[in-house]
Every structure is written in C-alpha cells, then in structure tokens.
Amino acid sequence: MTVEVEIWTDINCPFCYLGKARFEEALEGFPHRDGVRVVHKSFELDPTLPHGHSDAVVPHIAEKYGISEAQAAANERGIGAQAEAMGLEYRTEGRDFGSSFDMHRLLHWALELGKQETLLDALYAANFAEDAPLFGDTERLVQVAVNAGFDEASVRAVLADSTAYADAVRADEAEAARLGARGVPFFVLDRKYGVSGAQPAEVFAQALEQAWSDHAPELEVIGGADACGPDGCALPARD
Amino acid sequence: MTVEVEIWTDINCPFCYLGKARFEEALEGFPHRDGVRVVHKSFELDPTLPHGHSDAVVPHIAEKYGISEAQAAANERGIGAQAEAMGLEYRTEGRDFGSSFDMHRLLHWALELGKQETLLDALYAANFAEDAPLFGDTERLVQVAVNAGFDEASVRAVLADSTAYADAVRADEAEAARLGARGVPFFVLDRKYGVSGAQPAEVFAQALEQAWSDHAPELEVIGGADACGPDGCALPARD
C-alpha cells in the first residue's frame, strides 16, 4: 500500500525549495511515511532559455516585474526571511537565474541510481544557500554533483550528451501541462490530488492523510460469482 | 502509474483456477496491461487441516454438502465442463483436498524470486489437470516446483523449515479477513475495488478500467500558495 507523490519542481524556483522542506516536515510527521514514495519531476520555469544562460537574480526579477532593483532585492529578502524561519539558508545576492535543463537531465539520471533526492537537495543548496552563479557555470554544477557523492566521469558523460534524459525532461513537462500545472512546486498524490505551491505543512499533511485513507476504504465489492469458502465451493447448477 | 491487483487464492479452490484464467483474459485485452501489477495472496480454505492432510476430492465434497458421491462427481464434472470451455484441463477423479499451507509458504518464497506466477500456475496444473493426489504427497510437490524451474535444494529447505514464510501466509489471511473476504478467489484492485469469485472476464475488464481511470481523473487541486510559473514567482507581501 503506497501513496505515490510526484513533485514537479525547478531549481530556479525558490518556492520549490521552501515547498520541499514543508512537504518533508509533513511527511516526517505522517504515521504511514514508509508507505509514501516520492519522485521529483522536471518543470523549467523558462524552457526557452539557451544552454548556459545566466541572469543575475535581482536584475532579472526587477525586469520581469517592472520594479526597481531595490524592490526586487527587498522581495528576495522577504523570501529569505521565510526560508530562514524554516531553518533553510537563503542568499539574496550573487545568485543567478538560468537554464535548468541540464540539471533536470541529471535528476533523471540520479533517479535511476536511486539518488534523486540527494542530488536535488544538493542543487537547491548550491543555488539558494550560496552566493555564486550556478546556471552559467557547468564546472560548478559538476562539483556540486561530485560533492554530493556522484561519480565525476558519469556526471560529465550525462552533461556532455545533450540528448541524455532529454526526452524524460520533456515528458515530465508535457505531463505537468496535461495535469494542469501552470507553476511549481506542484505536488500530485496518487494522480488524484494536486497541491499547488509552497503550502503550509498542514496542507500537505491533510493531503497525505486523504490519499492514504483512499487506499483503505471499505472495498466496493462485486460479488455473486462462483467462489470457494470455508463452507465449500458454490456448486454449479445441476441438471 | 500502476494498478495494484491482489488476488487471494487457494490451490484447493477450483474457482480460483478458473478465476485466474478469466482475470488473465481480461488483462490480456486491457490496453494498459503493462501498468498492472499482480500479486497472489494466501487463503487456506481450511486452515485447520494438519500438515499432509489429504482427502479424496469426491468423497470430501459428498460429505461436506451431504450429497451422494454420484452427485459430488457430477458437480465436479460440471466444474470440469466450465474449465474445458475456457481451454483449461480439469480432472474430476483421483485428486485430493488438503492442507495448502506449505504451498502458500512456497508461493511467498517464489514471490521474492519474482516467479510467483510460474509456481502458482504449476500448482494449479498439478492439482486440477492431473488425476493424482498433491496435498498428501510432499515429494510430488517438490517435483512440481522443480519441473517449474525452481532449485530443488531450495524448495526442500523452505518445506523443511515450517516457520519459513509462515507469518507471511498468516498475514495474508488476516488481511483477507480485514477486507471482508469470506471466500476465494478474491481480487482487490488498488485496495479500492473488490471482485469476489470467478466472475466473467468482462467484469474483471470493467474493474481494471475503473481502477485505471481513478488514476487519471481531473485532479482535485489545492491552490493559493506561493509558487513560480512562466511569468515569475508570486511576490511576498511588501511593507
């Protein structure tokens, strides 16, 4: 009996970083947590960006929203305050925004190794908890993966072959569109319940409870056919 | 996306033998059959029988239902006719009824090897398609498993240790009771739908369709929290 949780996410997305921690807080307190399986899925906030694209975060936000850089920086500090309140490190300066396609390809590779969570946490930490560009720096990306315990030659091989896991990334994104996800984080439980955004842990806890209880309802039983029980088998009609 | 099907069954149960074939017919025609996972679970029709117990089937039925042996034999022929109509061999004489506990233990062992289906088919064939006792003949049981491709020494080791997989069998039986199964075959789809008895293939097909469609409904989405999308991230309130 397993609740399958799919989490669409982007490394560029601060609320994905926060939402993951809130979901994990809910999972930690969920009595049936051993029966929950989590898979992370790809969602690029901007799939049109070319490989290696890197914008400094604050100017990027200022331009995107048509606000001043001072306002953009203040917004970043607002997110940082939320992160810190949850015990997450968050740097508001020196970071970049860019193409996450290679990271999503690596995450699919890590999934096959059973180490997707490890890599995702490392990527989030590298992007949000350090004041250095990540999206425009492939060497740094390699080091982040290697420091997280991945084999350097294998990481480089995945990165060097731009077709590797590319279809898997695109498939995740198509799936997100079909499910109606227009932003991330987007959590889907058993393909039945969706939770959009970095909701409070209580919301995730309720969704987990709901999905779990759906697994153990009164069965709707179709009966009436030949069967055997402790008192014997139903006898076929005799002539 | 997987539909999990659990099938409680007993080797003693002719309708389990028939029901398995009907379920497989439905599965064969199910467009998403690669997304269906089947596990067979233990259910002893008579868990009180001692190890090695063996009754000839026809006298056993006659006594159980308080009918003549001629009537019991006619009933067996009736089941045989149903089986033959499905292309299954069925012997009405020479077979026995007995303790299936060891077989269920072996089926749990085979499940771990990824070969439960192979063993179950072999046990059904040995019981129903041949006119020789099976439940009272451990050597025959060993040969059935070996002929199905299992390692003889390993089979004997499982049989020799009466505690091996015994808890797993008991757990299956307790689970069946919790789910309200009073006879077998008992099919459970996603712990949501139950199908009792050797229903026509169409009933299984409908149950598979229903369970599958439950996996891909309109999501019930809880929204309204901070998220990032193509147009940027929700901005935290500014003061």
Structure description:
Chain A is of the alpha+beta class and 239 residues long. Chain A has a single domain (3-215), classed as 3-Layer(aba) Sandwich (Glutaredoxin), CATH 3.40.30.10. The first copy, chain A, is 47% helix and 15% strand. Chain A contains 9 helices and 9 strands. Chain A has helices at residues 14-28, 57-65, 69-85, 101-112, 116-128, 138-147, 152-160, 166-178, 201-215; strands at residues 3-9, 36-42, 54-56, 96-98, 186-189, 193-196, 220-222, 228-229, 232-233. Chain A has a 4-stranded mixed sheet, sandwiched between helices. The mean pLDDT of chain A is 91. Chains A and B meet through helix 1, helix 2, helix 3, strand 6 and helix 9 of A and helix 1, helix 2, helix 3, strand 6 and helix 9 of B. Strand 6 (193-196) of chain A pairs parallel with strand 7 of chain B.
SSE order and pairing:
Two copies of one chain form a homodimer.
Chain A: E1 3-9, H1 14-28, E2 36-42, E3 54-56, H2 57-65, H3 69-85, E4 96-98, H4 101-112, H5 116-128, H6 138-147, H7 152-160, H8 166-178, E5 186-189, E6 193-196, H9 201-215, E7 220-222, E8 228-229, E9 232-233
Parallel strand pairs in A: 1-2
Antiparallel strand pairs in A: 1-5, 3-4, 5-6, 8-9
Helix pairs in contact in A: 1-9, 2-3, 4-5, 5-6
